[in-house]
Each structure stands twice: as C-alpha cells, then as structure tokens.
Amino acid sequence: MHAFGAEFAVPPGYLNTPSIGVPSAAVADAVAEVVEKWRRGETRPNDFDAIVDRSRAGFARLAGVPADRVTIGASASQLVGNVAAGLADGARVLVAEGDFTSVTFPFAAHADRGVTVTEVPPERLADRVEGHDLVAVSLVQSIDGSVADLTGLRAAAEASGAAVLLDVTQAAGWLPLETAWADWVLAAGYKWLLSPRGAAWMAVHPRAHGRTRPAAANWFAGGDDRWNSIYGLPLRLAGDARGFDLSPVWLAHVGAAVALDYLGSLDLAEVRAHNVGLAKALLGALGLPARDSAIVSLAADPARMAAAGVVSGVRDGRVRVGFHLYNTADDVERVLSAFE
C-alpha cells in the first residue's frame, strides 16, 4: 500500500505498531542491500560511521535538538542506565505507576546505593514532583496509550529543581515532540520509528551532561579519531553526547537512517491527525470517550480479534491496538467486527 509518500507491505488489520512497527519498502531494501554486501564480504566497519551519524541526525531533527546532543544505543534501558548510573547515592526518583520497566528498572537496580523509586498514578505525577531529584516517565504509556501532562510536569520540575527524563518510544514518529527542554529524551526505534530493533537514541541536555555517566564506556564513544585510538589507556571519550555512545548495531542503523529521514520529511501534525482520527473513530463507534492518542486499550477477546484478522497486542488483560500512518478506516472496521 502507498501511505504518506512511501510504500508499505503491511497486511490489512495490522494494528500492533506499539509492539513492532512495519518498515517501508525503502527501509527494508536498504537493510537487504547491506546484508548482501555483508554476504559477499564487501562491508568494512568504518563504512557504518556515516550511517550512524545520519540516524543520529535524524533523531535530533525529530527531537528538535542539535545532533551533538544525541547519543546512540541499542535499547531504551541501556540509555536510561547511563542516567541511573549518574545519580548521587540516596537520590529520589519519581515514576508513573505501571510505566514500562525499561524506564523504571534501571533506577530500581541502584537500591543498594540508597536510590529510592516512588510510583504514583500517572495523572498525579506533576503534583508529586516536589521532594524528588528526578522524574522519569514515558510520554505515551505503553500499557494503554495515555499521554503525560508535559505542561504540568515541566512547570512542577522547574519550580522544584527536579531533572526530567522522558521516554518517547511510544510517541516519536506520530506525535510532534516539544520535549527539548527535558534533561534526557530517549526512544527505541523499532516501533513508531519503523526501524529495525537494535537502534535507540537519547538527547542529553547540556545541563545534564555532567549528571550522565558512560556506564558502558567503549571504543565507539571516543573522539573524532576513534579508529586510530582504540587501544590502551587513558580514558578518552568524545566531549559531547557521543561520549555516551554504545557500540552500534550496524544493520539496525542502516534501516534507521532511512526511516528517520523519511519521518523527518513528514508533517507529523498530519500523521498525528491521521492516527488519532482513526483511534477516535474506533472509540466513537464503541461508545467510548475520545482520547488524543494513537493507542487504544480495549476490553475485548484476543481470540475474536485474531479471528477478525486483527493483529494486536495484549497488555494488562486488555487488547491493545495502535494506529499508524499505514492504517486505514478498514482497520477500524475489522476491530469493530470482533465485537459483533
């Protein structure tokens, strides 16, 4: 199918983007081409440096920050781990109750240093910031698609001096981001960013640089001359956010570079309107309150959904569907048919 200027082979009824996005033909072709070169022994390690730089710049555009603020990794939890490792002993962290564990576990793992992690209902997050050193939350909740109140959170954090970490994995790619004010903004690429699994990024605000620790310091995080300085001490890392880089998963960044270039060329306000419009159409037809999210959580029978040709996820005992730019009104009808 042709959607938003790209070709997709996504099957009808595919509504599982919150679990794994479907690449465009251009993304899949780019990865396949490099796999063939790899098969023939035609790839060289430093061939991928420019590709990683391209994916880094692509995420920077979506996040609204300069590329030198962006570090790369393979998963969200790895990147959050750099923030957790930089916390002072006894730090107090506030999180949303029921948030994805890649946001919360990296902090909870530092309990031996006196780091405490407090859960509150997502809608109470802004009210409870006072007395905490850091607030970590998903902009869009994986479990049900609820969207955080960033206006309230930002005001509360600035008033109390708390740092803010935002995981935009379930938002980047369909929701225009206005998050450059946050201390850390991160995303994994294999969902709404339509990239292979193994590429993730985090924007590090200059004020947060000294509070971020290179927990897995490695050769790739070296300076501009990394290929000539990969042996021996002393420690020498890039002075900007690249100093927190993890060694890249090359094939993942090949696809991500193409995917992020594509998404960066779109008007994400239009993508949001398309996705949220389909979600609201579904909720309206079911007599449920409208929400401004591309993700919908339903009390439904997963077996009936599958029988109706709907590919969905199940979270917290409920069917979870997500509408992205390659979905249509026909997908809404498929979901509705499972309720007949």
Automatic annotation (TrEMBL):
<protein>
    <submittedName>
        <fullName>Aminotransferase class V-fold PLP-dependent enzyme</fullName>
    </submittedName>
</protein>
<dbReference type="InterPro" id="IPR015422">
    <property type="entry name" value="PyrdxlP-dep_Trfase_small"/>
</dbReference>
<dbReference type="GO" id="GO:0008483">
    <property type="term" value="F:transaminase activity"/>
</dbReference>
<dbReference type="InterPro" id="IPR000192">
    <property type="entry name" value="Aminotrans_V_dom"/>
</dbReference>
<keyword id="KW-0808">Transferase</keyword>
<keyword id="KW-0045">Antibiotic biosynthesis</keyword>
<dbReference type="InterPro" id="IPR015421">
    <property type="entry name" value="PyrdxlP-dep_Trfase_major"/>
</dbReference>
<feature type="domain" description="Aminotransferase class V">
    <location>
        <begin position="41"/>
        <end position="286"/>
    </location>
</feature>
<keyword id="KW-0032">Aminotransferase</keyword>
<dbReference type="Pfam" id="PF00266">
    <property type="entry name" value="Aminotran_5"/>
</dbReference>
<dbReference type="InterPro" id="IPR015424">
    <property type="entry name" value="PyrdxlP-dep_Trfase"/>
</dbReference>
